[in-house]
Every structure is written in structure tokens, then in C-alpha cells.
Amino acid sequence: MQATLMTKQVISADAIKNELSTRIDTAGFSAWISPLAFDVSDNCLIISAPNQFTADFVNATYSGVLNDVASKYGMNVCVRVASTTTVIRKTANDNNAQTYSAPVADSKGTGGFDSFIASEENAFVLSACKKMAAGTAKFSPLFIYGPAGCGKTMLLNCINNSYDGRVVMMSGAQFVAEFARALHDKTIFAFKDYCRNCDTFIMDDVQVLAGKRATCDEFVQLVIDLRDAGKNIVLSASAAPSNLSGFDHRLQSLLASGLVVDIVAPSRAVRRALFVTAGVSQKIADSIAGRVSSDGHVISGIVNKIHAYSELMGDTITETVVEKLLADTLKKSKSPAVMVRSMCEKLGVSYDAVCGNGRARSLVLARQMMMVVLKNVTDMSLCEIGSYVGGRDHATVMYGIDRIEKLQETDLVMSAQIAQLIEEYK
Fold first, then answer.
1. What is the pLDDT of residues 46-70, one digit of tens each?
2. Cα(172)–Cα(187) distance, integer angstroms
């Protein structure tokens, strides 16, 4: 009789567990339900979790489906901690049965905030990062967003290198890979503990998590747990939380619940300063700063190339050397005359007509638009600009520029056309 009852209990528990595997997504079932112990006693399905954190999470996330499946067998559900003698609420794994080895040691680097050259536009985000590194910030998470190459990763490294407490720092791709590895190795609770056992948690490229439901669920719970524990959280992404595709509204609002700041690409002044630190003269730095893109990765490559050449060849970095060394990177500079001829083709007017005395409205507008472009992409005086569009005097050029700038406020097509020309020739 007893043997028959035990067989019935085992079969019932296994049947319920199997049915749950069809009702819960594979990643969620593998991470949270499969490791749990199932038992049946007195019409009650008893689910034993290894710690209080897991019991609370399963109750909060899966109580509906658990009760629904158990009720089909005429049972109630009880989720409890396997051992009630010791309950540790601050960490996910309180039985120390699992171990997790991080892929990269939490070693401190040498680069601090002194190595980050910030433009005026980035003063706010730099101050926020310094506050976070000092451990005095009252906002968390700090969410930094901006295009590739604008310095997000460098700022995160500055925080990591300047903070005295324990920091866990990883990229979004690393988090996805390590979460999957922990599931496969059945060390998920140890992985949870590793991420939570820190003073500051830093993640770069959060947008990589988009569309990965199980990983996003774990990330949401991680951010909530860290925030509730008063820990610092610093995140970066390519876009603001509200513009991140592949994330639900709950995660977007969580990411925006602290301080959201943007970071802009290095300005010309910053690029110039970086090239000076690489060992070139102020004149050469100013010359090449306007002929490279604002992508920080490209700029870093140029600085490394100049450093390497100077160290390996022992030559002085002259303008000729720079032109040859960076021929594959620098934008070809164009003379004002070449730019005017090129703009004539784009605007559909002849070069001779622009430099002549014609007063047709379309011709005058084209000529004045060229004046505006030359003013924005060169350092020429108004008289010099006039010399390239038919020898116009200072007053004529000033009037033409002023007229076009006023028209741009209402003529969006013209404004876009001029902006495109300026971007092409600057």
C-alpha cells in the first residue's frame, strides 16, 4: 500500500513538471523551474527552492501557471525554501552549492578621468560619471547614450578605474554569453550572486540584449535587486531608453528611472587636443582636425598611428609626414575654387554665370547659397569669399549671407540643401 502511494506521488510530481515545461518558455523553465525539487503530499504540490530569493522570484513570476496546472490535479501549491535554518536575502545562492568563475578578473586599469578630454557639450555627463565614481551619487541607474565612437566605453572604464569599491563590469554581449553558459552549466544561481555581489555594476552596450526575452527578464531582476540594495548601476547604449527597439515598456521605464544623459561625438576642439597629445604641432593638429570624422575609434587609430611612427621611425611629425601617413584616413581638402565649381554642378548653374553679372533670381540665390557654405567651411574673410564668386565686395557678400540665413528659417528645403553642402565640404 505504501509503495503504491509513493509511486503515485512520484508520477504526479513528474507529470506536473512535464506539463509545466510545455507552458513556460524553454529558457525560463531551464533557469527557474527545472532545478527545483517537486513533491506531492496531502493534495499539495510542494516545490522546494534552494534559497529565499528563488522562492520569492518563482512565486512572483510563475504563481499563475503553477496554480493553474496544479488545480487540474486537484492540488494546491506551496513554494518553500528547502532548508529553513539559514536564509540569506542579499544574495541569490545561499547554499554555496554552485561556483561561478568570471571570464575576466575585476582588475583595475590605469586610465582615470584626466585622460578623458571633454567638450562643453559633454561636461554634464562627465560630472555625472565623476559623481558615480566617488560613490556620492543619489541617482541610479546612470544611463549614458550616444553614437558609436563618442566615448561611452571610455567613460565607463574611467568609473571602473576610479572607484574604490568592488565593480562588476561587462558588455551586453558578455552578459548574454555568461547567462547562457550559466544555464548550460547549471550555475545560474552562482552567476546571479556574482552580478549582485558588488558595489557598482557597469554594463556597456545594453542594446545587445534586445529581443532576448529570458536574458532581459534576468537583467530586469538584476537592476531591481541592485537598485533596492542601494548599489550603483551604470549603463550605456546607442540610443535613449525610449528609443531602444526590442525592449518592452517595462524595461524602458526601468532604464529611464535614474539619470539619462547623452554624450556627443568629439568636437573639432577635442580632436585638435587629442592630436596635440599625440605629438604633432598645434598647426598640424588644427589642420587635420577638420579633415577626420568625429568617430572616436577613428581618432584613436590616428593617435596610435602617429605615436607608433614617431617611436619606430624617430622622425619629426611634419605636415608632409602626416599627409603621407594618414592618406587613407584624411578627407581630401578642396580649394575654394574647386568647391565653387562643384557647387555649381550640384545647384544646376554654370560657373561663368555665377562669376558674371547675371541677376536672374535662381542665379542670385545659388550664388548667395555658395557664400553661406564658404563662410561655414572655410576661415576666409567676406572679401575673400566674394573673390571666388565673381569678385563681389564685402557689403554684397554680407547682404547675401544675411538674406539666405533668414530664408533658411522658413524654407526647409533650402536649409537642408545648405546643411548637406556644408557637411560635404567641411
1. 888 877 777 877 887 888 888 888 8
2. 19
Print the domain residue range for 389.
336-425
Asked if residue 37 and residue 66 are part of one domain, the reply reads yes
Same domain as 247, residue 275: no
In tens, the pLDDT along 269-283 reads 888 888 888 888 888
Write out the H or E segment, with its range, that includes residue 66: helix 52-71
Sheet containing 37-41: order of strands? 37-41, 44-49, 76-81
For 54, the grid coordinates are 528563488
CA angle 299, 304, 305 (to 5 degrees): 95
pLDDT score of 369: 94
State how far the alpha carbon of 262 is from the alpha carbons of 128, 146, 273, 376, 381, in Å: 11, 6, 22, 26, 35
Q: What is the pTM of this model?
A: 0.58
Residue 47 lies in a domain: yes
User: Within 13 Å and on the Cβ side, how many CA atoms surround 151?
Assistant: 27
Full strand arrangement of the beta sheet holding 167-171: 167-171, 200-204, 232-237, 142-145, 259-262
Where residue 70 sits, what CATH number does that domain have? 3.30.300.180
